[in-house]
């Protein structure tokens, strides 16, 4: 049996989101990016590769429609497809990120990926996994992984 420590409790998730939200209010660009990234992972249950490939362009796979709040997954493991609705508060965070934060990232105007590194390059699946691991460790959740968000969502 797998260790239950690998899965978030409701309290751990609430605390993580609260701490990220507070830090994002501090004004640092990276903290605002991290808040949006973790909110997206929590709200969608996407794999790291799906988060890395999430796009603002409807012609690209894994497109998020900011008007309707629907994420359409078309490029996923095992050729699975689907539509994931974001809840209102998560959608507000993502919209704020796209309108106010993302334009401050270098190369944002020419990149279709939803999430970019602070230097303006797109995430790969491995980079996204490492980013999530680093964030979780920073907040004292060393025993969790990027995939723990997926398990919590389910």
Task: Give an account of the 3D structure.
By secondary structure, the chain is mainly alpha-helical. It is 47% helix and 7% strand. The chain is built from six helices and three strands, in the order H-H-H-E-E-E-H-H-H. It has helices spanning 10-24, 29-44, 48-53, 88-101, 125-138, 146-153, and strands spanning 63-65, 70-73, 82-85. The protein has a three-stranded antiparallel beta sheet with strand order 1-2-3, with no helix packed on it. A hairpin with a 4-residue loop joins strand 1 and strand 2 (70-73). Helix 1 (10-24) runs antiparallel to helix 2 (29-44) and helix 2 (29-44) packs across helix 6. The longest helix has 16 residues, at 29-44. It is globular and about 40 Å long. The protein starts with 9 loop residues before the first helix and ends with a helix. 32% of the residues are buried.
Brief digest:
With 154 residues, the chain is mostly helical. 47% of the residues lie in helices and 7% in strands.
List the helices and strands and how they pair.
Blueprint: H1 10-24, H2 29-44, H3 48-53, E1 63-65, E2 70-73, E3 82-85, H4 88-101, H5 125-138, H6 146-153
Antiparallel strand pairs: 1-2, 2-3
Helix pairs in contact: 1-2, 2-4, 2-6
Keywords:
single chain, 154 residues, mainly alpha, 3-stranded antiparallel β-sheet, 3 strands, 47% helix
Instruction: Say what oligomer this is.
Output: single chain
Low-confidence stretches: none
Provide a count of the helices: 6
* C-alpha-based Rg, rounded: 15 Å
- How can the largest sheet be summarized? 3 strands, antiparallel
**Could you spell the SSE succession in H and E letters?**
HHHEEEHHH
The percentage helix is: 40-55%
Q: Helix/strand/pairing class, anyone? A: mainly alpha
Q: How do the strands line up in the largest sheet?
A: 1-2-3
Mean pLDDT: 87
